[in-house]
């Protein structure tokens, strides 16, 4: 037999062995740990079964299991295999125990086995705690981009490229496209959407939602949820928002909202706000530029109508070569029809399709005639075009602003509408609530104009900032809406008063810009409130016709150069608030004129045959009086009458005597009324520019044939006495509102340095003033800028 060599162990060695074998209790606690492991494993398997059942139910509803759930189930499966392996060897390992389980016949083997049981028990407990999932699945996202059907793009290629480039910029999270109804925003938007199919991998999902008028947050949430395969349409808005946020958070998404009408609260919907960091995008289309700003895009892209060539190409594509090739005359007529659409894609498409089966010249001639005379009567116009455009009208808030919009249809096609003249109509019609300050009332009008422009119902004329224009098809929509009460035949070549079937229904009539010479109509126009007769060849207006319009509020007879006499029966127009006789040859005002007690606005500009307006002080409601370029100059007797007009706030007048100017300057209220001043032929004594400093509202100054004394660099403060002790250096500009200065054939002008005191000057015209040596005198300018406000003139145009 062999022999064993004894091993000598110290006390420390024995202690270490004891701690190793007994410290963790791998052997001592083996029985209890096995029992605990079986219990915990049973619990884990129960939790696993619940998770699997829940996953199965939700996957049947087009959900997909979460990655965390996948990993957990895999780990449970793995641990179950290890558990079974350990359990299969447990009887053998338990038989090795001795000393009441405190030791083992095979210490090393039992130690290793006990350690495995202990660690597996710990791992099972951890898996149990991790198996308490609030959510086990998420929506199965559809393909990142589902291409939307759209036809060929004609005339929008450049716009598509620009819009795509801007949307893809890193710093752009929100992008708006705005434009009038029917201009092709949705078509362009679909093209942008489909370009995302070329960008596989950059975005996780592209969501297309049609918003339209009246959309609710809940409805938008449902549409987004459908794309994300989220259920729960019966949930609250907050719960829906939480679901959407949970899915989109951490994903790079693109949300495309077509046809929005007001600001959408992305947070309330549940859409994470797009930032440079998350790389997400929100794009939208709207008819309102204002909505773009409210959504956070302050430099939105405007979708304009097509140019003439692009419009013709689109129209041709809809009509078809088969029709156009029938007769060369059809091609020429087709071009005229296309022109009537003014580049609006909606009209080009609908009218083009309607005409595609019209193969005779006569049918095309009729189309041109109908579109010229009354486009609303054209086939499909009332069904397919005008109702779509009317949504823009319906979205306007308040009946007054809607009335302001419809009023613009009284003007001819493509007619440049002067903004201030339009606002003056609106004020007198009562669309704008009058303020004590006429300027504030006018500003309210500009606010309405801004709303209509931002809604793409009116358009600024790029090279004439004082005017707007209404697109022809938008105008047809307005006339269609107001057809029951409007009678409009402007710029249609009339030579006599047209026939009106039902005068009782007509409230507003426009016959402007025709060739009508006389109106002797005996019909009763008792309900008429607005009558545009300007820019005709009018010579005679019968008393019977005028006298029948007792509800008339606005009467425009301007630019009828042969019109010399107002009927006496004008005194019967008790409701009249606006009367425009600009550039007529009227010789005198009838006696009954003084009975117009409600008259607010009177324009006598350019009435070169009118020499007296004696009795004007009887017009007790008058707020605006325009006398420039008339023979009625501001003599003292007239000015005394004007002083009696206690509501007068705007006065445009020609002054040709020093006594007249002195009289105005002696009445501060009257001086403050002057917005437009024409100084003529002050030759005896120098006309002092500094004398005008008290005219705080002076906007336009014309000086003709006068000796002018310029303003010193040190001048009297506004409203001070003429005593030199009151001279000082003002800290604000003197001519705050002055925008136009014209000086013709003037003497005594060496320089125009004083104009630096006009911060809002936009136009300067100087001619036939030979003594002018320089525009700005350096020394005087130094004094001005050193002692006055830093605001100086910002003139846009100068003519010398």
Question: How does the overall form come out from the CA principal axes?
Answer: elongated
Stated plainly, the CATH topology of the domain at 157-302 is called: Rossmann fold
Structure class: alpha/beta
Q: Strand arrangement, largest sheet?
A: 13-14-16-18-19-20-21-22-23-25-29-30-31
What about the largest sheet?
13 strands, parallel
Verbal overview:
Belongs to the disease resistance NB-LRR family. There is one protein chain. The chain has 800 residues and is α/β, with parallel strands linked by helices. Among the domains are: 124 residues, no CATH class; 146 residues, Rossmann fold, CATH 3.40.50.300; 65 residues; 84 residues, Winged helix-like DNA-binding domain superfamily/Winged helix DNA-binding domain (Arc Repressor Mutant, subunit A), CATH 1.10.10. It has a 13-stranded parallel sheet with strand order 13-14-16-18-19-20-21-22-23-25-29-30-31, with helices on both faces. Strands 6-7-8-5-9 form a 5-stranded parallel sheet, with helices on both faces. α14 runs parallel beside α16. The N terminus is likely disordered.
Topology:
Elements: H1 11-22, H2 30-59, E1 63-65, H3 67-88, H4 90-95, E2 97-98, E3 103-104, H5 107-130, E4 137-139, H6 157-167, E5 174-178, H7 185-195, E6 205-210, H8 217-227, H9 237-248, E7 253-260, H10 266-269, E8 281-286, H11 289-295, E9 301-302, H12 308-319, H13 321-324, H14 328-340, H15 345-355, H16 361-373, H17 381-394, H18 399-407, E10 417-418, H19 419-429, H20 438-454, E11 459-461, E12 464-469, H21 472-481, E13 486-488, E14 508-510, E15 518-519, E16 530-532, E17 540-541, H22 543-547, E18 554-556, E19 578-580, E20 601-603, E21 624-626, H23 636-642, E22 650-655, H24 658-665, H25 668-673, E23 674-680, E24 687-688, E25 700-704, E26 708-709, E27 715-716, E28 727-728, E29 740-744, E30 763-767, H26 778-787, E31 797-799
Parallel strand pairs: 5-8, 5-9, 6-7, 7-8, 13-14, 14-16, 15-17, 16-18, 18-19, 19-20, 20-21, 21-22, 22-23, 23-25, 24-26, 25-29, 29-30, 30-31
Antiparallel strand pairs: 1-4, 2-3, 10-12, 11-12, 27-28
Domain Disease resistance R13L4/SHOC-2-like LRR: 506-711
GO molecular function, one term: ADP binding
Domain Disease resistance protein winged helix: 410-478
